[in-house]
Amino acid sequence: MAIIYQLKVKLDCFDNFIWRDMEFPSTYTLDKVVYAIIVAFEGKGKHDYILNHKDRAFVNNIKGAVNKNVLLSKDVKLKDLALDLKDPLYFEYDLQSQWQFTIEYLGAKEIPNGLSKNYPKVIQGKGKGIIEDFDCGSFGEVILEIRRSRKVAHVLTNNHEELDWDYRDFDVLACDLKVRRTYLKLKRNYQ
Predict the structure, then answer these.
(1) How far apart are CA 17 and CA 74, in angstroms?
(2) The pLDDT value given to residue 156
(3) Residue 123 maps to which CATH number?
(4) Which residues span the domain enclosing 179?
(5) Number of structural domains the chain divides into
(6) What's the rounded Cα separation, in Å, for the pair 184 and 186?
(7) How far apart are CA 170 and CA 127, in angstroms?
């Protein structure tokens, strides 16, 4: 039997509006978990990240790190964290824009061997996701404007990209399919 971990991933400060319930095989390395989360929240995988759990940090790039508690995420499996219901993980993507997420362990389940190829999965969720290259404060202003006007926002990103965006526009089935089809492609961005 294979073990599947169930995780709730919430975008901090917006966790009532933007979150995902996701499932991962316990044997996945933390980099694969991070790639899937980035895709599930519409990130492009262009920025460094850090994942914190208890007194350890897991990163994609260890240049200059001298602390023995800082490890490469590709070297640690999800099951190695000994997760429990009381100890969340904290994930920060794009250290400049400071997209911060809280990851809660919801439990584990067994599935027959061979079925783990159908993972990762997005089971439930709410809210569209982040706007890449957009700072968290400006993002909050966009959400407030959408809530006030009840209309789609016209957004100009930091890269001068124009887009119509609405956090309410979320399709869990499309998100799940996108995650399973594309999350490993992000690996190239971090090599």
Answers:
(1) 30
(2) 80
(3) 3.10.290.30
(4) 2-129+169-190
(5) 1
(6) 5
(7) 5
